[in-house]
Structure prediction request, 1200 residues.
Amino acid sequence: MANFDGPGFSMVDESWIQTKAIDIEPSTDFSPYLSRILEDCVWNGNRAIVFDVYWDVESVNTKSERPLSSVKLSTKNLCLFLRLPNQFSDNLKDLYRFFASKFVTFVGVQIEEDLVLLKENHGIVIRSYLEIGKLAAVARGTPIVEFLGARELAHKILSCDTSRLDSIQSKWDEAGGDDRLEAAAIEGWLIYNVYDQLQQ
Amino acid sequence: MANFDGPGFSMVDESWIQTKAIDIEPSTDFSPYLSRILEDCVWNGNRAIVFDVYWDVESVNTKSERPLSSVKLSTKNLCLFLRLPNQFSDNLKDLYRFFASKFVTFVGVQIEEDLVLLKENHGIVIRSYLEIGKLAAVARGTPIVEFLGARELAHKILSCDTSRLDSIQSKWDEAGGDDRLEAAAIEGWLIYNVYDQLQQ
Amino acid sequence: MANFDGPGFSMVDESWIQTKAIDIEPSTDFSPYLSRILEDCVWNGNRAIVFDVYWDVESVNTKSERPLSSVKLSTKNLCLFLRLPNQFSDNLKDLYRFFASKFVTFVGVQIEEDLVLLKENHGIVIRSYLEIGKLAAVARGTPIVEFLGARELAHKILSCDTSRLDSIQSKWDEAGGDDRLEAAAIEGWLIYNVYDQLQQ
Amino acid sequence: MANFDGPGFSMVDESWIQTKAIDIEPSTDFSPYLSRILEDCVWNGNRAIVFDVYWDVESVNTKSERPLSSVKLSTKNLCLFLRLPNQFSDNLKDLYRFFASKFVTFVGVQIEEDLVLLKENHGIVIRSYLEIGKLAAVARGTPIVEFLGARELAHKILSCDTSRLDSIQSKWDEAGGDDRLEAAAIEGWLIYNVYDQLQQ
Amino acid sequence: MANFDGPGFSMVDESWIQTKAIDIEPSTDFSPYLSRILEDCVWNGNRAIVFDVYWDVESVNTKSERPLSSVKLSTKNLCLFLRLPNQFSDNLKDLYRFFASKFVTFVGVQIEEDLVLLKENHGIVIRSYLEIGKLAAVARGTPIVEFLGARELAHKILSCDTSRLDSIQSKWDEAGGDDRLEAAAIEGWLIYNVYDQLQQ
Amino acid sequence: MANFDGPGFSMVDESWIQTKAIDIEPSTDFSPYLSRILEDCVWNGNRAIVFDVYWDVESVNTKSERPLSSVKLSTKNLCLFLRLPNQFSDNLKDLYRFFASKFVTFVGVQIEEDLVLLKENHGIVIRSYLEIGKLAAVARGTPIVEFLGARELAHKILSCDTSRLDSIQSKWDEAGGDDRLEAAAIEGWLIYNVYDQLQQ
Prediction:
């Protein structure tokens, strides 16, 4: 059974996010974690999985490839952080298959470029996705929110306290692994709640 | 005569969906099933066939090809699930020809990427299609529904009970073949009814 | 003189459509039929020719070519059905020249993909055309009609009886040549009348 | 001095169009005719030159080239019809230079494809142009006029008698050279007047 | 010090435009003239430089290259006309650098194609530009002005007397160098004033 | 600790901008300066970093490459000006990584072309950005501001005194290094304040 046995973090509304960070190696079977994410998503009632992707810029000057370095997946209660290997290995197909699912809507912030890069560099096509800023702009009639990052968007829509996130991100280079994981969890949770709010 | 002799499922409004799943081999003649789908569609009065396509990610890392692995076709009373072979065989042209028909409108959820992939990878051009979320968003004046998956879209438009679907999808990896077929049938039926509702 | 000596069909409003189906061979001179279509179009007062094109999927798997297999042209009183040869022959230029005319507006249903394929595969450019569903959607303020096929569109705009068409199309595989020609004539006539209606 | 010594035609409002048709050969100097068109355009007060282009479909099956076969240029009082040679000759640059002018607005009907073909096949870029149907649709709030040909558009905007044009175009294949020139002059005159009307 | 010692022209409102025409050769240092244009622009309060570009059609049939033949730059008081050499020479980089400036907004009429050609043929990217007709159409709610040339646009927005311009342009082939320069100056001045007017 | 020990400048509202200009060499570690920019941005409450990029036109005629020559980054209190080396060196990845951040929104004026060039020439993808003129045009209902440069945009939105900036930019070729840095700082500060204003 997939156990989110990484650190847990308390959000400003007292809710609790359980995390798991995995360094994927060719032998790592991380599919049970994806299954639990999916399960949590389905039972939370709005079928949203918040995601973010991170790119390796090491090889960027060659322009030939922009490899995906890590992926964050968040639901109401869980946050999964996957660090990908440099080399393609067969188990990554579990992730590709997961992204292709139409059971759920993949929700992200400023993801337009990411979607292009996912297809160009890895042949990954997320078929069911939502650029949340664009939707929020239309739904709220405030054009500026289309262009905001996760924290500012959440700030506008939820008006909740983000001082913990600010504190970590302002000293990012000095932040430790757990702090960074907490920031990832907070951002995921913020977007999840923005989406939940917009649904109503 | 094409016999939908797979399991039948009862929907939440007591209607009944008869299914058929076919593993296509070079010698399989599945065209009578397509004819019956077409016939059922024409007589149901709104000329809609709900479809979904599934892609094989096995060869995705090569980026050169994304083969279609299966296709779902749903009308008011029927659900046909076709599993395609790895190799192209001549009888697949019956499916290609079916998709090209302008007798009917092919209705799907989040199909934009699928249409691109169908043309790029298989040279299939569906000429008469409808992205139902986009239409629902305009027709109902609620932008968010454009970005929802099948279940959430149906939930918003039809407000019907989807607990059976939730139950199967939340435990997808453990679900058996019949459960998965039932989920496919339910999703098809939901979208069919969303379309029917929007027509009025 | 071009004689539309194929079967004639009575429409639901008692009007009469005279048809002609031609298998084009290198020596066939079908240009007088095009001239008569043009003449009928000009005198009918709205300068509309309804068209539909059909594609050969036999060679579709190679992706290199999608040959045009037949073309339907309809005016108020006439319906011409041209079956094209596999090989290009010089007389086809009469058809290409006809499509290039700006005397008339070529009216079709869900033709966007067809226009792309005509240019890509045959270098044919229809310069004056109308996607009638798109116009109907704007003119009537009902977005859904943009995505409908010919029969459903006509049903929405004209509310006329289409049972004869339904009857043929629901049993398409068993339909004989004359039945299929009648269906083609009915569809052409329906779209012609939709266009005529929208003009007013 | 450029003499429009071709036949003159009387329009339905008693105005007179003087025409000139020229078969361009390498030694033909047609630039004085372009100068007179320009001059007439400038003094007519709205700086509009109506144009239409015609394509040779003889070589269309090779798809590599679609040569321009003739060009029509109309102002308030003049109509110039240029038949182009098969081979490029240096004097054609006078025409290219003329099209590049920003002194005037080149006005056409359904010209979108023509502009693409002019650039693709001849490197001609008309920098100042107007698709008149699109403008008329916006200016009059009637979407359908965007998609009409010259005659129908004029009919909707000007409500003038077009029976002479109808008479020629309905028997196009049997029409003589002067009749065709008259039809060209009438179409040019109609569009000129539509533009003039929309300006007010 | 850059001296605009070409002919000066009086505009219809008694303002005065000082001109300079330069035939650029590899040794010509025209950058002081660009500096003075920039200076005049900054002090005129609206940071607008009106520009127009002219293309050489001599080599157009090869389709491989469309060289820029001359450039006009106008501010409130100055008009600079640069004739470019056939061969690239190092001093042209001063012009490229000038176009790249974001200090100012480059204002033009029907410039969409020109911007494409500048990038395609010379690698020049104007980053801060304004298609003035498009803006005028929105600002004034009159769609037609989007498609007008400089003179007609000015006529609609400023309603000023353009008889001098008309007089030169109607006899363009016979116009001398100074007359052409005056026409260039008048057009630049007209657009400058349109922009100034729209700012208010 | 990253010390912005370049000249400081007083803005018209008495606020103070501390600057730092760095000539990047392969051994330069400028990442602490980026960290301080980030930190300042996070604590300023609106998560905006104003940026501008400058292109080297030296190699522009070859069309094969348009290298980035310098980058300006501004927050409420800081302005960092980075001059890039001709050759790619490994430390530039710190800049690429910085641009990829979604913590913040990168705000610029007329950046559309710049974003294209950054990807085409350097493989840099800024995922979270805002073209501020476009937003201002929508937010204020004044279409013209979309097309203005930094100074004019600020002038329209903030109505503040820009005489110091005007003074430097009007004599740009004669301006010294410190004056140019001051101009950069003023422009950055202006845009920062425009963004701040639009947020409210």
About this structure: Chain D has a mean pLDDT of 92.
